[in-house]
Amino acid sequence: MSGLLRWARALSAGFGLSLAPATTAFAEVSFQGETIEWIIPFSRSGGSDTWARFNAPFLSRHLPGHPEIEIVNEPGGGGTRGPNTFASRARPDGLTILGTSGSTQFPYLLGDLRVRYDYKDWEVVMVAPTGGVVYVAPGTGVEGPDDIDRLADQTLVFASQGPTSLDLVPMLAFRLLGFDVSYVFGYTGRADGLIAMERGEVSIDYQTTASYLRNVVPMAEAGDAVPLMSWGILDENGVMQRDPTFPDLPIVEEVYEMLHGEPPSGPDYEAYRAFNIAGFAAQKMVILPGGTPPEIVETWRQAWRDIFADPQYRAEVSSVLGAYEQVTDRAAEALFIEGTTIDPAVRKRILDMLSNEYAVRLSDQ
């Protein structure tokens, strides 16, 4: 059993859930001749888009009737436009699904004015943890994690979708580490941050694992990007460990200790950790509308069970998406709850920071 599944089991016990898949018999469902729209609230070539396009052919293979899967990219609103569209238009017939990310979770957790959706209204059928890597431009003079202290006297530039998007995780990490970072807001996805780095417009960036493996690894091999650290993963005891996809890169906790001589602690670290978990351990979810009939929900979950057992999928998934355990059934429900729930004290601290440091005020402050 993987560390994630052990952690999900502990969460499930705390939430009163069972990890056993449903066994109730339902009427047969078929999507033959149908086209299923998969809404991705981000631009093409980013991590979420890569994740969806990798999974789409396997969904077509394993859903009954072998429907076409159409990826619909709908960026905008700091990750809220796509889920807003899904909430207002998707019918409970299994023909429209939503791929969420931390950039759709965070605005919801923080009460963002643009949010017109409620996770409590939805059905989760799959959760995919992921990781991410921070890298810098060679012009910073940094050659690797061992000389990260060279960043101390520099003002770095970061291209951001906004402070309530998934970019909140690097913002909290950079703040914790003491980096001086100038944020340029208004980008529509992490793919745009990558383009800004390629053009020399920014000096520090991060990409989620799928995008990093696909787009940044070639840059690093060519000497055009310098990888610094990863966000890490949670083990079965909820302790942050190095990401198995990037075992040679330190995690934020290690970098903090390198710079400050002691492990991180205190409110700033607790805020970073909380949003790291919500943004990465439970980052990507496949959602159906509330009110979807149980037989359709179960059909989707069975498709994911079959995908996870598919030999081709098992052979290819790690090289594209990284070494992370994707889950369905009660394990997905437990991570769904964890990723869409926030401690009020942490929420207030983040809202105060956004207001005081970035002049971002949300509707319910």
From TrEMBL:
Highest taxon, organism lineage: Bacteria
Gene3D superfamilies: Bordetella uptake gene, domain 1, Periplasmic binding protein-like II
InterPro entries: BUG, Bug_dom1
Keyword list, A-Z: Signal
Signal peptide (residue range): 1-27
Family: Belongs to the UPF0065 (bug) family.
Name this protein carries in UniProt: Tripartite tricarboxylate transporter substrate-binding protein
Organism of derivation: Pelagibacterium nitratireducens
